[in-house]
Design goal:
The complex is a heterodimer of chains A (about 110) and B (about 110).
Chain A lengths: L3 E4 L2 E4 L5 E7 L5 E7 L6 E7 L5 E2 L10 E5 L2 E6 L8 E8 L6 E3 L3 E5 L1
Parallel strand pairs in A: 2-11
Antiparallel strand pairs in A: 1-3, 3-8, 4-5, 4-9, 5-6, 7-8, 9-10, 9-11
Chain B lengths: L3 E4 L2 E5 L4 E7 L6 E7 L5 E8 L4 E4 L2 E6 L4 E6 L8 E8 L6 E2 L3 E6 L1
Parallel strand pairs in B: 2-11
Antiparallel strand pairs in B: 1-3, 3-8, 4-5, 4-9, 6-7, 7-8, 9-10, 9-11
Classes of the chains: A mainly beta (about 110), B mainly beta (about 110).
Chain lengths: ~110, ~110
């Protein structure tokens, strides 16, 4: 299994500002994923981030709003840009499992936009 | 497109009860099914993973079963405790690295 940390764990932000969330893994992984979980909802995949290439965004998510960096095999960032109250969610980072189809999840970043 | 449904959406029980949480999926061509636990405002903790060739997995007081042909899985929690209070999410992998999640069952076990 992989151990994943995220920073910050939570934040309260003003509308119109941006927040960058960091995800650190204790081992090298090819694929990292960013999810959003809105209040009372399940997880929705924002994008898949592979090292050395542009992130692949799911329908409804765009790079201008959620730019992602993947500078190496153990680290990724997700920025939530020009935030509005609708962006209030838990943002989760995950990585692929090895040998079996699964993912390991970070502790999440709880974001509240006022 | 795969759809995952979890029933019930919420459950409140007294301590000591045995519980069954249900997960159904529309496309039976899955590789794995996984149950997660999520505490309020937190990330996901993996509980049990059932590969498509398996029928069930057990860990402590938890037992998960899988019936691919009927598109169903159940998570059985024996002798529930207040510490079991959390949201339980079911996720299926069906041929890609992107899982489909259900909306979860919110469980409260009161003393």
């Amino acid at each position: 299994s992989a151990v994943i940390s995220q920073k910050p764990s939570r934040d309260i932000c003003q509308r119109g500002t941006s927040l960058t969330i960091q995800c650190q893994v204790d081992s090298q992984v090819t694929m990292m994923f960013w999810y959003r979980q809105q209040p009372g909802q399940s997880l929705t995949l924002i994008a898949t981030a592979n090292q050395g290439s542009e992130a692949t965004y799911e329908s409804g998510f765009v790079i201008d709003k959620f730019p992602i960096s993947r500078p190496n095999l153990t680290f990724s960032t997700l920025t939530v840009s020009n935030m509005s109250p609708e962006d209030s969610s838990i943002y989760l980072c995950s990585v692929e499992g090895t040998g079996v189809e699964t993912q390991y999840f970070g502790p999440g970043t709880r974001l509240l936009v006022l | 497109k795969q759809e995952v449904t979890q029933i019930p959406a919420a459950l409140s029980v007294p301590e000591g009860e045995n519980l069954v949480l249900n997960c159904s999926f529309t496309d039976s061509a899955i590789y794995n099914l996984q149950w997660f636990r999520q505490d309020p405002g937190k990330g996901l903790t993996s509980l049990l993973l059932i590969q498509s060739s398996q029928r069930e997995q057990t860990s402590g007081r938890l037992n998960a079963s899988l019936d691919k042909s009927s598109g169903r899985s159940t998570l059985y929690i024996a002798a529930s405790q207040p510490g079991d209070s959390a949201t339980y999410l079911c996720a299926v992998w069906g041929g890609s690295y992107i899982p489909t999640f259900g909306r979860g069952t919110s469980l409260i076990v009161h003393p």
